[in-house]
Amino acid sequence: MNPRENVMAVYRGQQPDYYGDLMAAVEFIPDPFFVRDALLPQDGQEYQDSWGTVRVFLPGAPGPHPHITRDNVVITDIEKWEEQLTVPSLDNLDWSTARAAAAQIDRNEKLACFFYPGGLFERSHFLLGMEDALMAYLEYPDEMKALLRVIADHKMAYIRKVAAETQPDIIFYHDDWGTKQNLFLPPGVWREIIKPLQQEIADTIHDCGMIYMHHADCILEPIVSDLVEIGVDIWQGVIAQNDIVKIQAITQGKLAMVGGIDGPKIDVENITEEQIRAEVRRAVDSYCPGGRFYPSIPNGICFREWNNGIVMDELANYGREYARNNPVA
């Protein structure tokens, strides 16, 4: 099987040649907004994104981050959000690079993937600041519903534009809804404010003929049934702090998952090669029996090159051995 065929065999619950990271079988289509907003010089200077949020990319950091202060926050008063928010236009974006990249992907071999960060929750705390956003979800639910309605409408319009311009196989939607310990919001608040709009976003992705892959490298265990109801096809970023075996039982094979290898546990100094290989084998042995599972490091790689090389080598070898010795019924 080629990479696309193998990935889709796992996705359909069929026999693959090997178990490995789905992300190794995708090619990315560049997002004009992301290129403009997040591909910043690594100079520690402040840059404003399309929504007005100030970001910085510190030297040595893995990526740019919002740098929100009382002086530069976009929305200073949630009750006045309409007069303080400027929604970026979808007109006059340069799609030439994205179209060219999409045209060069051999879709017989790979899946075309459009990375779409800045989901509803993340965009809300980019606009308000994390502390004020969390308080607003609890104290001003009506205003937050109205704000997220506008953000969701923008996202759905953009998804339709993405489909028209490049027609990816996968929308890789990014919204971290929690930490390694719990959700950011109580499940009831998430269900009341975010879930209905996320359902509309999922429907839009599916109406455009694309797979909805949701990145959240955090605890989502309390809302996994909701993910299935919404229509999330693949959860990418499943950290081992979730009870993954329990989640597989709850979701009954309706949610494909990518992750399971405890990256921070093995991306450390003074660890042996065998300890790294044992963690890869643990993830494969624990989660692949549940089906529709792609063992991987949830955030993609170990940042230490030596550690990452061992992970990839063990995954390539043991993932193939496991598939050979444990055929799908």
UniProtKB/TrEMBL annotation:
This chain belongs to the protein called Methyltransferase
Q: PANTHER family under this entry? A: METHYLCOBAMIDE:COM METHYLTRANSFERASE MTBA
The alphabetical list of record keywords is: Methyltransferase, Transferase
The Uroporphyrinogen decarboxylase (URO-D) domain extends over 129-286
Task: Kindly list the GO molecular function terms attached to this UniProt entry.
Answer: methyltransferase activity
Q: Name one Pfam family in it.
A: URO-D
- Report the record's Gene Ontology biological process terms: methylation
- Domain of life, per UniProt, equals Bacteria
Is Heme there in the keyword field? no
Specify the signal sequence span.
Answer: none
SUPFAM superfamilies attached to this UniProt entry: UROD/MetE-like
